[in-house]
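Re: [help] complex structure
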Amino acid sequence: MVRWTQQCIPTLREPPQDAEIPSHRLMLRAGLIRKLAGGLYTFLPLGLRALRKVERIVREEMDRAGALEILMPALHPREVWDRTGRYDVLRDVMFKIKDRQDREMVLGPTHEEIVTDLVAREINSYRQLPRNFYQIQTKFRDEIRPRFGLMRAKEFIMKDAYSFDVDTDAAETSYQAMYDAYVRIFERCGLRTKIVEADTGAMGGSASHEFMVLADSGEDGLVECDGCDYAANLERAESASTAPREFDGAAEAIQEVDTPGARTIEQVAAFFKTEPARMIKTLIYLADGEPVAVLTPGDRDINEIKLARALKASELVMADDATVEKVTGAPVGFAGPVGLSGVRLLADEKLKGYRGGITGANKAEKHIVNVDLERDVPELTYADLVFARGGDQCVRCGGTLQEKRGIEVGHVFKLGTKYSEQLGAQYLDEAGKQHPAVMGCYGIGVTRTLQAVIEQSHDKDGVIWPAAVAPYPVEVLIINTQHEPSVQVGEQLAAESEAAGVDVLLDDRDERPGVKFKDADLIGLPLRVGIGEKSLARGVVEIKIRATGEMRECAPDAATETVLELLGTLNNAAKSS
RNA sequence: CGGGGCGUAGCGCAGACUGGUAGCGCGCUUGAAUGGGGUUCAAGAGGUCGCGAGUUCAAAUCUCGCCGCCCCGACCA
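Output below.
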């Protein structure tokens, strides 16, 4: 049992001005965290207790899935990162420091290199596989822009796991086991998650899924199909090609038109009094230094991840103005595919069959109308290059895609043998033949998950903790500490609950009732047992369920039993949701 | 990194344009009353006005530089 007067729960009536989203404001207001600097937070006692609850769930499910807990250093010598070339890939996100010997060190943003180095040394035989190592550890990333409290911080706690298998079939099994464990973890945390196909980014590898908590404040865009279970991060999402588009003038010959002062899509569309979708947007990129002209519908945005993949380019940047002028012969704003020579031409597949389109003429202040791409630019090759968006058709079933935002709380990757080959994580098979282990890696943002719980479970009055991760399951609130019998009953109830294995926060402050009720709602423990003169006079205490607002009354003698019963109900409700 | 905004008591803010002894609400301390949804009264404590230069008789206020924080954007023609 903890007495409020002995705890440090600094609730705030007003949120600090620099907090934007509900979960961030509530974490500050409920006294869970305090900021040291941008992206750096201290966990106060209540916040730490909730964090430990999440960690415990993660640990239990990882252990259950057969993963082995280890703890790797947060501080790494640079050489390990040079061995895979990722020092250069992650250069900007790593914190780099030097020791007194002037040796270059980094603070670990992730641990593939470290764990693979370990396995390279310790695992030699197929008899030792499969193995899955995990840790719960602090990661450091020099984020471009930390924001929203724990959502994107420079220092955060992550659970990361790494599986090693003899072949891709076995690796598939390990992947599925982690996937299933993740489903259970987030469910137990009381979170509703959406699982989406995702891009593998700097991690590399063949496939991955993200576990998303749907929230308007989420930093990731995603689409989900209303007709099947297809769902994907916008970085990766595909959508069906639209039917060939025909606009006015489709059958006519191309014609050059003076368009003074119109160079952006919006300006040109306005000039022709037509829609942006009719424009054939032409962008000049430099793919590994080579200029490429890329075409998309005027109302679509290029997905550079898709473009880089289609071009098999490792470095992709928009061309500078000088290059654009050199390639197109016109100032920026008038590029078009018709008559453009000397560069690779690549078009988004949604442009297939475009007729009657409008595009730049490769001359200053001029555009071309009545463009029929098949007729006028026959050499064009097509690929999926643009971001999918809400309203598009699903590639799988033809249903309609809905666009949502989400918080990425977990991410599972199939890594293949990229790291094991580079770092020598080899094993001998039964025939004595050497193979690289096939890897997978699996991350959960623990601190982010905690905040996501609040983002998904709160109301205007405060946090609504799911029972499984609440700092305490029950608050016993003595309404008036001047009223001796109330204090006695409260103390006794708290002691009883404690004896029954239920941690209790006892609000024993000599405050006005209103203050204590408000704080109880704010910190949002699942159950509140209120003890006051009026209800005691009727021989009862009051139990309020935070999530529903439902009130129960029972005799003080029966209170502990009722609390246990209600907690059971709340836990089951969490499991079945 | 680019753009915008902010920095004055623990929190939320006013004061700045037009330089002249630093204010308000909440919180905190003490006392009294009150005691079922942020109660009331009285008396208090608490500030290098982000930091550093400069202008001035005089700077929270004007000028310059720096730092920190928040938001938006980061090559979409």
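The CA atoms of residues 330 and 363 of chain A lie 5 Å apart.
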